[in-house]
């Protein structure tokens, strides 16, 4: 392994930092991605006390976010709507203007804890409808402009779009395991798509359930897309490069892009079902390698949430040794 000794950390092992700003904003939080060597995905864990929120009402023009409610209840502000949220909710916040602005508020009498995951763009523009300002971030720049002269016009246009937006939330108990991943004697799992149902554009996410003694996918690495996993229930083993790590409920697992040294596979070595949330970037062109079977695969032009056979260059799998030189057949 490269940058750190482990790609796994449990939610109970996280060291949270306290944040407080004024009367409304307070949380204990930690950025998990940097702890595990994530490159393309940002993920953090927040615990918000009753009556508070962790950040202002805002939207992103570049980075898509998703949230998973680990425990507690509260209210999601989304565009001009509000919706009650509870443990097990998955929330999609795609890129856009104020019609996709969002904020999680703890209006209960107990702690609200959630996981947030986002794409990591080199530059970003955020809009803050409550305070009528715009923020630009990137390359060391952090610039906030208040009272944007175009704000009123933009807000009127975006307000029309807000009326057509459906708040994108689904709970774990509402998911449909519609994809069967059974194959031979070693692979037995089922998958419930989530991202496509909620309108995600830049993140892919699903819930995968693996039977005892089985695994969902072959041992593999991605050269373009990054993955992370959050274990919901059960226990098992993570194969990562040449190492193995025990995993259990509450574990975060980081799988950055790269060669066979970051190849990974989750095995259910327990006696009950292993269930986890899988999240990935959605770069439409990728190359996979499969060290156990000595093959590689390639795909191109795959739209987020769509199956591989709908890509403009459909997935093909080839033995590692089946190479020809550049001018072959020309």
Description:
This protein has 330 residues and is mainly beta. It has 2 domains: 8-171, Jelly Rolls (Sandwich); 175-319, Jelly Rolls. Helices cover 6% and strands 46% of the residues. It has a 7-stranded antiparallel sheet. β26 and β27 form a beta hairpin. It is globular.
Termini gap:
41 Å
Category by helix and strand content: mainly beta
Q: What name does CATH use for the topology of the largest domain?
A: Jelly Rolls
Strand order of the largest sheet: 1-23-20-25-18-17-16
Give the count of structural domains: 2
What's the CATH architecture name of the largest domain? Sandwich
By DSSP, the count of extended strands is 28
Q: Specify the overall morphology.
A: globular
Per CATH, the class of the largest domain reads Mainly Beta
- Uncertain spans: 151-165
Q: How would you summarize this macromolecular structure in one to three sentences?
A:
By secondary structure, the chain is mainly beta. The protein has two domains: 8-171, Jelly Rolls (Sandwich); 175-319, Jelly Rolls (Sandwich), CATH 2.60.120.10.
Keywords:
330 residues, mainly beta, Jelly Rolls, seven-stranded antiparallel beta sheet, 3 helices
